[in-house]
């Protein structure tokens, strides 16, 4: 009799586990993230997303993650806040600690963006984790500094992070990205073809946000041996000029998308209507990617220009 009771309890537990498993599967099928994400299954998809196709498709990039009250730059928390409002990619920065761990911070010192003072390279990760981050206005937040590894892991399936050039080596960046199989959610800023070749020779999957500010730089990339499909973004300057309009056309002929960085000039326009008009003009002039301190505002400004009939929308989940 005791055996029969144990057998019935066992069967009941198995049945319960079965129904729990079915419930989890159903929830996974119907659950919708509260984030607006950009996601790629493989290398071909991220290359397709960043291929210029003359379809009026544009991308918003948050400079240092973005700027908001009580949200610090270069922080997962800030990126998540942006993605709650609209899809975007993010340019971010990393520096090395005393114990050689890349952490998410723009400056070489802790002074401006944290409650601590001193050079990052003089602090261990454990020491830096005690610092609280500040927002752009200097308000102290409840957030701590993320590691680059934290950022890479979190971004997978949600967005693309663009790692700017700081003191973290190409090899260390690539090793971290490779460790987490994150080449479909990570790209690398490079300032010239020589820097790009260092990455490309380490791993042919590397995709770049390349500074191409003049025709000489364009020709250096063209003769470098790096396929144009590995250039996701060509940064052509921080304002619209006749020269970068010509560069835009040259790059579009190679199927490369072009980016204007609004932070130095257009983001600083005080009048909101004029600022929104300046954002719209960048896209209307045919540039494809707008990098900004205010990705949520830019999304609002460009809402009327958004194209929904492009095949690239398949990678965006709202």
Question: How would you portray this structure in words?
Answer:
Residues 58-302 form the GP-PDE domain. It holds the Pfam family GDPD. It comes from Aliarcobacter thereius LMG 24486. Keywords: Membrane, Transmembrane, Transmembrane helix. It is a single chain. This protein has 318 residues and is an alpha/beta fold. The chain is built from 11 helices and 12 strands. The chain has helices at 2-30, 43-49, 76-85, 125-128, 148-155, 170-179, 193-202, 215-222, 242-253, 272-284, 295-301, and strands at 37-38, 59-63, 89-92, 94-96, 102-104, 161-163, 186-190, 208-211, 231-237, 257-261, 289-292, 316-317. The strands form 3 sheets. It has an 8-stranded parallel beta barrel with strand order 2-3-6-7-8-9-10-11, surrounded by 6 helices. A two-stranded antiparallel ribbon has the order 1-12. The longest helix has 29 residues, at 2-30. Residues 23-32 have low confidence and may be disordered.
Beta-strand fraction estimate: 5-15%
- Euclidean distance between termini CA atoms: 57 Å
Helix content estimate: 25-40%
Largest sheet: 8 strands, parallel, barrel
Per DSSP E runs of 2 or more residues, the count of β-strands stands at: 12
Low-confidence stretches at least 5 residues in length (pLDDT < 50)? 23-32
Number of DSSP helical runs: 11
Give the averaged pLDDT, no decimals.
Answer: 93
Task: Please tell me what the overall shape is.
Answer: globular
Secondary-structure-based class equals alpha/beta
| Cα radius of gyration in angstroms | 22 Å
Strand order of the largest sheet: 2-3-6-7-8-9-10-11
